[in-house]
Structure formats: structure tokens, C-alpha cells
Amino acid sequence: MAAVFTPRYDLARFGAEVLRGSPRQADLLIVAGTVFKKIAPVILRLYEQMAEPKWVISMGSCCNSGGMYDVYSVVQGLNQIIPVDVHVTGCPPRPEALEHALTILQKKIISEEKPARPVLHLRGGTQGTTHPILVDGETKSRDTRGPGMEGIPIRGTSVTPPLFWDSRSDLMWTPPPHRIELKEQDKSLSQCLKERFGDAIRQTPQTSDMLTFHMDENRSKEILRFLKTEATPKFLRLDDLTAIDESARRDQRPLPCYDGTVANEIGGNRRSIRHDKGIYPDYTLVYHLLSFDPPGRLRLKVGLTGKDPVTQTITDIWPSVSWYERETYEMFGIRFEGHPDLRRLILPHDWEGYPLRKSYPGRATEMAPYTHASAIKHQPLDAGAFVKQREGDREFLVLNMGPQHVGTHGVMRFVVALDGERIADINLDIGYHHRGVEKIGERQSWHQFIPYTDRVDYMGGVANNLSYLNSVETLAGIKVPERAQSIRVMLSEFFRINNHLVWFGTCCHDVGAMTPTFYTFRERERLMDIVELITGGRLHPSWFRIGGVAMDLPEGWKEAVDAFVKVLRERIRDYEALITKNPIFKARTRGVGILSLKDAMEWGVTGPNLRACGLEWDVRKKFPYSGYENFKFDVPTATGGDCYARYLVRVEEIRQSLRIIEQAANQMPAGRVVTDDYRYAVPDKKDTLKDIESLIHHFINVTRGPKIPKGEAYAATEISRGEQGYYVVSDGLNMAYRMRIRAPGFANVQVMPLMAKDGLLSDLLAIIGSIDYILPDIDR
Amino acid sequence: MESTPSLHSLSPWEPGILALGVFALMSLVLIIAFLFLASWLGEKKPNPEKLRPYECGIIPTGTARFPYPVAFYLIAVFFLIFDVEAAYIFSWAIAFDRLGWSGWLQISFFIVILLVSLFYIWKKGGLEWGPTARKSPVSPETSSLPSSMN
Q1: Among candidates B56, B143, B145 on the partner chain, residue whose Cβ is nearest the Cβ of A400
Q2: Which of A241, A387, A655, B114 is close enough to A417 for a disulfide, judged by CB 3.0 to 4.6 Å?
């Protein structure tokens, strides 16, 4: 979408280039990307506010039909809400496809519509599409089985919990999950906790990734407070909080670690059976903690019982947990007593049900259709509910910035209360881009889920694949060949540069500099060419596989990479000459949006935003993965924590990424590109033609998918925006039991009110540009 | 300079009721033509949504008619003062040769008074905009690691 306006594609040649900030001045609405139930009322309003004549292009498969997101939060086709003139296919469509759509629309207007005739009161002629919107059951069918196939189960439901039949994965054998030896530091911490809390905390006998404990619910808050303030090392950051609905586990033996746990009575309707030797929990809360010095991770689990369990909030220990608790509340129905603002965060405020419960339908096609009437009925919550409207005798102007705003970089809503131009109060409304990807992870096989990861941080491309695969490989103990590791590193760094180039253009654009976008997108297109050469895809290649990558590097990759590194090195100098010392840019960014290091660490801010506060913290250095320990690179930092510092860090990161790419390209090891452990990987096609073992594994792994041993693992990687972690839980099936994504944007954005409050409204734009978030990464 | 000889009744140099009448009639016809064309050609598809203020697709909260902070008013008043100043200076400038030194002295006095008032406004903080106490880029707390980390 953005690329069509930039040099190579240059939409201006087709007579359409001016983007309008208001529907009043527009005659074409391009709906690009997935249409969510939360954003649908907004799209409808935009369309209705446009003056006649007006046309609509639906861009991308998700927008056309819901695409691969047949999930509770997604509208299955834009034409259920508003009429559509042209549909553009592809996920995402190439820039040429959008240009093609535009010419098709122009031809359609010329040959079929004659829109001037009704204006001149002549007979005939129409404006915009005359096709009525589609009605489910009458003019369209959402049944994925197709007409006449109602007798068969919907594909996938026969193996999806909780209604699955006997899974054939049970007949497959795998080695036990990977097991790690604990470090001295972990052992001493474990000893310390045991002495202090006794039976209230029990270490799991084995773990695949980090020290893990089960905690007694009554004392969990005390333990967490101890870990943050007194333990050695101090666990300053709460990386993630989530829950698991345990109701669909196949092995529901009571866990001895919850022996003596007093079940929470407030929820009522206790379903769990008390057992002599412990309790089987209905839900498990999972806390992931992180210590900075020395780097360490820790997992704590709390069993909760009851239909709608209640537990204590820990917002007074970590303020950053506020959003995590709200998310857990709305997804699982677990209430947190004492939470200052426990209401829905991601889903619309009038949503019913808790989507990540196993009993909740995952697919939109299993639910009632979302229609034009629904879009009128389910309006977003009034802004007055987010901010205070007066203070003393001063009345504030309450303003919605977003969700449909050019400055918010996607569908996100900032509700600001303005005292003049000063932001007196600010609150964020997210979830307009919630794709339910965690729910999807519970029904797609371990392999099928890879394409969904690409779309989580859609500027991150295959770097997302790596985050996910890193966790799966940690759990199953899969060894990735060296060549595959190097290829993964090289491509991930390409996508870091891709992100930073787009960021450079848009961040400068946000503070008024139009030019850089046109330069950075020029280089980005060269980069996309290389990605296309190697993977065949542009934004979402989905090119990494369990145990390696999809195929070997093609001929001519080295020359292309070398040429690009050389060119970009020079071009960064040009970009910097334009911006770094630019007095206007400095005036707009220096001292604006300051975040203190202490806040950044406690609120879970990661990536360049954390490094701009002065902390040298990079997962690639602190918890090396995929062979990053073999590469020489610096971790750029800056001081001040303002918008300008964040700018400096990112620019330097482009240079460091180039260094890594150069080393990876020059020292590319020879050998396989996918593991020969065919139990998990999709075997090489050549091998399947030679031996029956490989053929069988190929058949199994591309159909129902490999089985991953029962267990859990959390691993994080440093993607362009910060630490993206996947917490995968396997019940020993061909799909995940729980797929949790710890997204960097979620934590980075949560602190924005701290930076923006009491600043100017125009500073908010600079902060948005410098934080560099992306919506599907926040909302998932 | 001689004025161009012209038909007396329609001459622009000789004001008369006929010329005014023709001018008024032409204006009226033009206005009616424009209004008619606009209403005849214009699309009429009324919709309550089209009358609603656009606020990023959300139904706006509260009213836009409420007591504004005084800063906006101050800026408007300052603009007015210095705008009037420009009007006087221009009118002096086109006739400065005929007004002579006394005119120059008078306009200089006028400008000096306005300059003094500008500096007065400046000093009083009337031109300050937005939150004045911007946080400094590097404060001692943010530049070093917090002690709780170690």
C-alpha cells in the first residue's frame, strides 16, 4: 500500500496520488488489510461520510473474504458491510496489483457507469457500485465446506480441542522434550526461595528453557514482590503474564504441586475435583520474569480453580501488568481483584464471552454473521469513558486521534483531553487490529502456523518465523544446521533494515519532512528484490521451517547482497545528512517524549526504545540464539530517552545490521539447510524419492503435521521493535495447546501516556513516530 | 492625464444610476445562475452521517463550543494589533513623499510604541505557547543506571 506512492511504483502516473485526511474530500476508499469487527463500524462511517460519487477498492484477501483469518474477531468480507467495486487479491497484494485495480476501476467507470449522466439529469449512468451488499445465507455463503456438504464436519474440527476425536498423533513416538541443566545462579535462587517460602513454591523437576516454579495462589503476590525487590538477582521486569485454559488437556491428573491449595471460592461453581494428592487446576496463570544483571529468566505458574476464578492483582508491584491482566481477564474471564481499571482492552467493549477459553468457538464462520446492522449497532466506546473531561473549572476538549488517522500508523485510537494544545489526559484504545492469532495457533498444525507469524509484525517478515521456531525448537530440542542458522540471521537482519528504512521515512514524515520517505523506499525496494530473489516473497515470505529454512540460497544471491550492502552504506550517509543535524527535526524531537531508564525497564520496554534510554540490552547478545554469538556487532545506545535518542539508535542499528549481513554473506557455511531429524522437519524432496522413511515423514509432516513432545518453552528474539517471545505449550499433539505471543509493541505502547502527558498535541505525533509500533504486533 | 472619452450614461468615470443598475442586475443574474447550477447539478443524498463532524471515524464526544483557554484569545488579539499596524504603515508608505518629515516622525512614533508593546508582551510571556517547563533532554536520573538494578 505504502510502496505504490513511492518512486518505483509511483501511483501518480495513474491519476491517483493525493491521499486525503478526511472522507469529505475523497471519492475512493481503499480498504487495505483485514477488516475487524472492532473497526467495521468505523469503516462504515467513513464510507457514509464520503460525498458522492464514491468508489471502494477492497485490497487483499483478508479484506475480500477474511482470507486466512477465519477467526472470531474478523469480518469475513468487506462486501458484507459496504458495496465494493474492485477486489484485489493477494496477501499482501503487490504494488502492481493495486495499480492494476485502479486502472480496472477507471475502465469500469468509463465503460459502464457514465457517472456524469445522473449529474446532468440524463437517463442512465450510475455512480459507484450498484451491487447490493452481500447477505449471508442469501447472496453469499460463509460455509467453508461449500454448498451441499453440510453433512461433513468442518475441516480441522475433528482434531481440534476440545471436541477432537482420537488423534493419530498419539500413535507417533517422539523423544521427551528438551531438558536443560540449571545454572548455578538458578540453583541458588531456587534454594533461597525454598528456604523462604517452603511448600508454597515448588520447582518443576525438569524444564526445557528456564527455571520454573509452581506457586501457591495465596502467597503468589508475596513471592512476586520478593522476586522483584529482594531476590538476587532482582527480577525487575515482568516479561509476560498470560493464562492457559486447562480444561481440554487429555491428561487431567491432579498436580501434586498444588497440594493443599485452597481453591478460590468467589468464582463459585467449582468444577475441579479435590484429590488427596492435590488439585487439577481449571486455569494456570503464567508469569515470565526477567532479571537484567546477570541476564536471567524465570517462569512462575499458579493454578486457579473455578469457572470464573478470581485472583489478586499485582499492578501495585509492576504497573506494566495492567494491560496484561486486562487481556487475561477478557480472554479467559479470570478476574483480578484490586485492578484499578479491569475492563476489556482488545475486543470491543460490548463483546460477549472469553475467546481463549477452550469452549469458545475459534472461527468466525461458526458464529453469527457480521452484517451491516451489526456495524451500526456495535459502536466503539465513547471517548468520555477513557479520559477525564474536566479538572476543577477547566473544561477539556476531548479528541479522538485514530483509529482512522494518517498519523497513527495503523488503526489505533488515542483519546486525548486537551487543555489548549496541552495534553491534559491521554488514554489508548487498542484492539482494532486483533486477529486472534493466539486462538488460531491452537488449531493450525505446528507447520501451518508459520505463515501466521509473518503477519504478526508485518514489517518483520521472516524474523517473526524465527521467533516462533526458536521456541518450538527449544521445546523439542531440534538442532538447526549451521548454514540454515546463518541464512536465518542474514534474512532477519534484512528485515530489520526493511523495518528501519520504513520507520526512517515515516518518522521524519511525522514531524514534517516529506523527502526521506522517497529515498528510503527506493533502497527498500532493492532490499525487497533480494528478499524476493531468495524467498520468492516480499513482505510475508513464510520461508523458515522447523529445523531450518525452506530451500537453499539461489544462484547469484551473494552478488546481490554485496551490492546492496555497498549501496546502503553510502545512502545512510545521505539520509543522515538530510536529517540528523536538521534544526527543525532536532527542535521537534529533542527533549520530547522522555522516558526514564527506570520506567523503561520496569514497564517492559524493549528494543531500540530501551537502548535509547541508555541500557545496553539486546537479546542477541544476552541470550544468543541462531548463532548470533558468532557475529561481531555493537549494540548502539543513546542517552536521554527522548525521540531524538530513539532516532539515533535506529539509524546506527541499520549500520550494525549491515555488518552482520556482510559477515553472514562472507562466511556462509556449507552444508544442509534443514535438519536431518525428519521427525520434525519437512524432509528434502530428493530424500523422499530414495527412502521410505523420509517419504513417510514427508507425508505425515505436510498433512497432519509433526508431533511436538508434551511440554512448554518460552524463547524471545530481538526483532526490529524489541523482544518478541513465543510461549508455546504442547500437549503432545500436532498443534499447540496454547500459543502465546509476547509482543514488543504491546509493552512499548503501554508507556506512551507517560511520555505524552503534559506535552503538546504535536509532540504526540513525534512520539508515535519514534516509538515505531505496528498494530498487529500490539493487538495480535 | 485625460480620462478616456466614453458613452456618458455608462461611463465608469461619471457615476450614474443606470451604470449601477446594470451592475446590480449582472451580479444578481450571475448569483442566481451559480445557485441554480449548484443545486441542479449537485448530488442530493442526505445522510445524517454526512452532517456529523469527522473525528477519525468515531462519534465525537462533547461539544466544540466551550470556554477555550485564554492563550488562543491572546494570540488572536496580538495578531489584530500588529495587523492594524501594518495597515497604517502601508497607507503611510504610499504617500510618504507628500507627508514629509512630520509624517515620518509620526509613523516612527507609532512604530516605536508598537515595538515597546511587543517587547512588553514578549517579556510578560504572552508569546509562550504550550507547556513552558519542557523536561530537559538529559536529567541526572535518566543518564545513569538506577541503583535498584545492581
Answers
A1: B56
A2: A387
Question: Are the Cβ atoms of A413 and B49 closer than 8 angstroms?
Answer: no
Q: Between the CA atoms of A386, A391, A393 and A397, what dihedral angle is there, to the nearest 10 degrees?
A: -40
Please measure the distance between the N-terminal and C-terminal CA atoms of chain B and give it in whole angstroms. 92
For chain A, which ranges sit under pLDDT 70? 1, 155-166, 256-278
B135 DSSP 8-state letter: P
What are the CB-based long-range contacts (under 8 Å, 24+) for A571-576?
A571/A519, A571/A523, A572/A651, A572/A654, A572/A655, A574/A519, A575/A504, A575/A516, A575/A519, A575/A520, A575/A651, A576/A651
Whole-number Å distance between alpha carbons of A44 and A60 = 18
Closest residue to A421, CB basis, from B41, B130, B144: B130
CA A269-A273-A274 angle, to 5 degrees, is: 110
Q: How far is CA A8 from the centre of its chain?
A: 29
CA-wise closest residue to A757 among A585, A595, A590, A639 = A595
Alpha-carbon distances of A422 from A36, A758, B131, rounded to whole Å: 32, 6, 7
User: Count of CB contacts below 8 A, A vs B?
Assistant: 125
Provide, as residue numbers in chain A, all residues whose Cβ is less than 8 Å from the Cβ of B139.
594, 596
Single out the residue of A533, A555, A534 nearest to residue A544, CA to CA: A534
Per-residue pLDDT of A245-283, as tens digits, reads 888 887 777 776 554 444 443 334 444 444 445 678 889
Q: How far apart are CA B74 and CA A579, in angstroms?
A: 34
Side-chain-side CA neighbours of residue A206 (13 Å) = 9
Q: Chain A: nearest CA to B50, how far in angstroms? A: 5
Residues of B in contact with A404 (CB under 8 A): 56-57
pLDDT digits (tens, 9 = 90+) for A178-204: 888 888 888 888 888 888 888 888 888
Q: Determine contact: B44 vs chain A, CB below 8 A.
A: no
> How do residues A304-363 score in pLDDT, each as one tens digit?
888 888 888 888 888 889 999 999 999 998 998 888 888 888 999 888 889 998 888 888
* ipTM, interface predicted TM-score of the complex: 0.71
Q: Which residues of B touch A24 (CB under 8 A)?
A: 54
For residue A643, which residues of chain B lie inside 8 Å, CB to CB? none
Which of A748, A402, A373 has the alpha carbon at shortest distance from A593?
A: A748
- Nearest residue on chain A to B57, judged by CA atoms? A42
Q: Are A35 and A123 in contact (CB under 8 A)?
A: no
**Option in A42, A121, A421 nearest B57 (CB):** A42
**How confident is residue B48, by pLDDT bands cut at 50, 70 and 90?**
confident
CA-based nearest distance B44→chain A, Å: 9
CB-based burial label for B76 (10 Å; 0-12, 13-18, 19+):
exposed
Q: Do A234 and B149 touch (CB under 8 A)?
A: yes
A639/B138 Cβ within 8 A: yes
Nearest to A37 by CA among A457, A356, A436: A436
